[in-house]
Amino acid sequence: MRLRVLGCSGSIGGQQNRTTSFLVDHDILIDAGTGVGDLSLAELTLIDHIFVTHSHLDHVNSIAFFLDSVGALRPKPVTVYATGPTIAILKRNLFNWDIWPDFTVIPTPEAPWLRYQEIEVGRVVALDGRKITVLPAIHTVPAVGYQLDSGKGSLVFTGDTGPNDALWQVVNRIENLRFLIIETAFSDKDRELAKLALHLCPSMLAEELAKLKRPAEIYITHLKPSEIELTMQEIDELPGDRRPRPLQNNHVFEF
To answer: Which of these, 30, 131, 144, 170, lies nearest to 85 by C-alpha position?
Structure first.
């Protein structure tokens, strides 16, 4: 499997700050933030599957523009995989004809541009030999993370999450774990805000990584653009042997 980072910022501003989206091989998106907009029309037409971690706008906004751009160019619907509550939020608040058209009935209900596939924690979706497992996350809205497993190696993406014991119980059982992408949205000066918003800050990140029992390369995502340097400095100063690195646009993981 090949994962390319299209966006990994906590917000926008400048060429490097695109919100969360990863392109897996040529046909799968993990989340669909503003980073999707940098793909060409030819690349967009190849995407068949979108796995959504949660309904917040920085993770889903490009689904709307993506379908508007290439829905008519594709021979079949795009499948959006999400939990039942997340699908309900997308239907109610985004694809509702007030904010954006409902592409599950365009051009016709029988041949739409979009269809939903409900998933739940623990579900394994197999796509051409690739396995995508739904992982628990704890956030202000229903949320999940994902394990991507090629058979040779696994990458775990936590999604947006606060402290999450259930995640580590699963991750510590992944024998072929190679990469961990974990969020840290705030610096330690905003620890109380991180707790309220169910995100992580460096000191909370250290508490979470202490629960990880397997070796892995660790990358930090969802950094706020105005606090990248401060937050990474605090992460660099954390005790222990693990040395997380900041995730960057166009970073490619092969596993």
So the answer is: 144
Amino acid of residue 80: V
SS3 per residue for 206-231: HHHHCCCCCCCEEEEECECHHHHHHH
| Domains present along the chain, CATH in parentheses | 1-119 (3.60.15.10), 120-247 (3.60.15.10)
Distance CA 157, CA 142 (A): 16
Stated pTM of the model: 0.97
Mean pLDDT value across residues 116-134: 98
Percentage of the chain surpassing pLDDT 90?
97
> Using 50, 70 and 90 to split pLDDT, how confident is the model at 240?
confident
- Give the closest residue to 58 by CA, choosing from 24, 100, 8: 8
Locate the DSSP E strands across the chain. Answer: 2-7, 21-24, 28-30, 49-51, 78-83, 107-108, 111-112, 114-119, 124-127, 130-136, 144-149, 154-157, 177-183, 217-221, 245-246, 252-254
pLDDT digits (tens, 9 = 90+) for 189-221: 999 999 999 999 999 999 999 999 999 999 999
